[in-house]
Design brief:
The protein has about 325 residues and is mainly alpha-helical. The longest helix is centred in the last third of the chain and has 29 residues. It is built from 14 helices and 5 strands. The strands form 2 sheets. It has a 3-stranded parallel beta sheet with strand order 1-2-3. A two-stranded parallel sheet has the order 4-5. The protein binds tryptophan. The site of tryptophan (TRP) has 14 residues, from strand 1, helix 8 and strand 4.
Length: about 325
Amino acid sequence: MKKRILTGDRPTGRLHLGHYVGSLKSRVELQDEFEEFILIADVQALTTHFEHPELIHDSIYQVAIDNLSVGLDPEKTTIIQQSMIPSIAELTMFYSMLVTVNQLSHNPTIKTEAKNYGYKEMTYGFLGYPVSQSADITFCNAHLVPVGEDQIPHIEMTRKIVRKFNDLYHTEIVEPEYKLSSVGRLCGIDGNAKMGKSLGNAIYLSDSPEEIVRKVKSGVTDTNRISVKIPGNPDVCTIYKYHQAFNAEECPNITSMCKNAQIGCVACKKLLAEKLNSILEPIREKRAYYESHIDEVKQIVSEGTKKANAIGNENIAKIKEKMHVVM
Ligand code: TRP
């Protein structure tokens, strides 16, 4: 039997190149070896975007298309809409008894996000989303969660909850492990450490070839290199970081040309834009297909959710029995 993998995204907008290098690419590679579940976490999206439910609803299909267009095969990978899985909601409630408010408020990812969103006070739902994420991962007994570094505290909390829960109620919920993405975070095209929609520095998988060229042109290079004639320093260049992420085979060449003032930033950006467009071309083709077959996308999410519910309903029934939550 294949081991089960679960990972997910909050549908608060389209996915960008940071998602692609950090996560989507490896999802495609993992779908043969594992039974893969991709969760579209629309309830978790509400914890920060509860005032914009319509944006979340639209983004569900955008995120599904982002996943499908990079090459996730709906025959192999199950795409799930979180809000439609009642067993996740039930499990969240049961888990919440085993987590203290103190634990949650010390979670470093919660702290960073609260700061970034400018929350003076946190809602109960936001503070508690790691508990709900624990339910996301365990409702189907996922073994492995591929994540970026910021998600590690959540997986560790999940493991803690599961151990305590299994101990208390003699259940056999799988204690999941995380699989850290081997690629570091991709910075924004403006050089900001984080690529994000709110920061206005993101390149989207759905950007047109012209948008790619425009955004790459706006990218920050070695600011000390005021003339093409003086040597550049790739170590401080954002465009070079992108070459490393997307054009690794050309990097030795680019490094030597830059350091010897044999290539200017304009030409170097042109190389990058061409490379990005060649990577994005097949992705655009698939996107165009799915965008014109939106019913098929809805069907894929609905079938995936149905499959997940069959698993979740069976598991939660067993769990409730053990907990004496029965009539
Ligand atoms: N918190 C994740 C993020 O912000 C999204 C997510 C929700 C998730 N549920 C999950 C990731 C379960 C992995 C497993 O990207």
